[in-house]
């Protein structure tokens, strides 16, 4: 039986009920109707429930999804999705002075290679334990003598009973455990930056959201999309145009998908966090709203600040906060996470408090994951190994969090040689991907392509 993930109406409804409660709507009466009809809850970790429901329940789910979309949000003033409204709430960050020629120097190719490599390392570190709960991640690493986390996960030395109780991610163990790594395997956390290179090559930095949609339809296999991206892709094929693609029956619109697409927007706007955020916004608007969009804008701005090579990680994180609405759930979560990281010497304590604070959120939601990334970077003071290991050891969306932390920390490190060999050697300067023209490409080549898309007046020769 084929149960296509992330699109079944009966599964979407459970996620939309949770999303409605999070964004200030009142879904309780609709939730009661769904329960009274015998409707199931959303799968806790998987993309689809195990069994089909009746035709009646499926139709009811579609009707209730539309009813939920019409409910007003009590958070709309503090969490707008329209760019002009975001700018008004963050006016100082978007009030630019000076000329492009006066912008700080951008990253050279060596720094960009470190950022690309760092993104791959962090992603690869997190791949085997994606979807596992926090206690399982800790148990597997401790059993291998790898806690606090300091190297790639391995099955060597881990008791069989523990591996049976907490199996590795089934898609990743064969390519991502230390004993199996042979180059960077395919992952959406690398596919999307590759697609954004194509986006900028074809349309320049003034691209529109429609350009993102066309590129996806041309270059991105539907089976390589997940959560909000898969729903938006389906909406495009149904004739729904952006930005409605992000809203129509898309309960994942505040999840992490737009964040993982943000790096290239930061790399190509060195020293201009606002421009990076606006560029990330036009990308994110295809699939996300509100805090899902803010996570991408925050990440792009952090990376744009780091790309100058002139700021420490703490300044970069403040730059990220400056471009998103200050009373949004994301801004409050990141601020809280940074404060925890500054307060506690033991990062496990930070993680435990974050998991308690965000216990109601799905493990792929942008708010807790962005908060964890900020906490990891803060606690590690931007150190590469410390940043990626903390981001992954904190659980939730481990490969995405490791990738973003690795990108930022790699960029701050400034050169590939600054990244420890135990992390980089297994990658063999090679990644696999289904994005046409990039399979087998090296990170040095990707760095050159990215550098060529960076404004010349803001780049080193």
From TrEMBL:
Its cofactor is Mg(2+). Pfam families: ADP_ribosyl_GH (PF03747). Mg(2+) binds at residues 397, 399-400. GO terms for molecular function: metal ion binding. Keywords: Magnesium, Metal-binding. The keyword RNA-binding does not apply. Binds 2 magnesium ions per subunit. SUPFAM superfamilies: ADP-ribosylglycohydrolase. This is ADP-ribosylglycohydrolase family protein.
């Amino acid at each position: 039986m084929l149960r296509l993930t992330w699109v079944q109406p009966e599964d979407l409804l459970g996620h939309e009920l949770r999303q409605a409660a999070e964004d200030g709507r009142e879904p309780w009466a609709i939730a009661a109707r769904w329960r009274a009809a015998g409707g199931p809850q959303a799968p806790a970790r998987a993309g689809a429930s195990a069994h089909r429901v009746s035709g009646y329940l499926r139709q009811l789910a579609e009707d209730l999804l539309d009813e939920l979309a019409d409910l007003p949000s009590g958070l709309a003033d503090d969490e707008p999705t329209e760019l002009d409204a975001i700018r008004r709430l963050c006016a100082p960050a978007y009030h630019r002075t000076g000329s492009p020629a006066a912008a700080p120097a951008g990253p050279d190719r060596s720094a960009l290679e470190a950022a690309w490599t760092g993104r791959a390392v962090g992603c690869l570190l997190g791949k085997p334990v994606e979807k596992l709960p926090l206690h399982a991640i800790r148990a597997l690493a401790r059993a291998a003598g790898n806690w606090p986390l300091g190297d790639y996960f391995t099955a060597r030395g881990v008791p069989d009973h523990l591996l049976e109780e907490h199996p590795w991610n089934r898609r990743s163990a064969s390519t991502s455990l230390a004993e199996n790594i042979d180059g960077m395997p395919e992952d959406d956390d690398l596919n999307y930056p590759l697609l954004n290179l194509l986006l900028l090559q074809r349309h320049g930095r003034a691209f529109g959201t429609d350009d993102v949609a066309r590129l996806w339809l041309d270059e991105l296999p539907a089976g390589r999309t997940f959560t909000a991206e898969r729903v938006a892709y389906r909406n495009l094929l149904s004739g729904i145009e952006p930005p409605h693609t992000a809203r129509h029956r898309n309960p994942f619109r505040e999840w992490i998908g737009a964040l993982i697409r943000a790096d290239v927007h930061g790399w190509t706007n060195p020293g201009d966090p606002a421009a990076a955020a606006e560029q990330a916004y036009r990308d994110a608007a295809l699939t996300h709203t509100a805090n899902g969009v803010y996570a991408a804008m925050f990440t792009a701005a952090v990376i744009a600040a780091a790309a100058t090579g002139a700021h420490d990680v703490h300044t970069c994180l403040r730059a990220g906060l400056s471009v998103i609405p200050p009373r949004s759930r994301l801004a409050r979560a990141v601020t809280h996470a940074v404060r925890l990281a500054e307060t506690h010497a033991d990062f496990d304590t930070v993680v435990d408090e974050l998991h308690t604070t965000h216990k109601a959120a799905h493990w792929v939601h942008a708010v807790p994951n962005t908060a964890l990334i900020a906490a990891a970077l803060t606690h590690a003071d931007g150190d590469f190994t410390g940043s990626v290991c903390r981001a992954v050891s904190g659980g939730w969306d481990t490969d995405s969090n490791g990738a973003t932390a690795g990108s930022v920390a790699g960029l701050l490190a400034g050169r590939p040689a600054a990244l420890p060999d135990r992390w980089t050697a297994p990658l063999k300067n090679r990644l696999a991907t289904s994005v046409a023209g990039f399979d087998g490409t090296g990170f040095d080549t990707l760095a050159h392509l990215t550098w060529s898309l960076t404004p010349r007046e803001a780049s080193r020769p």
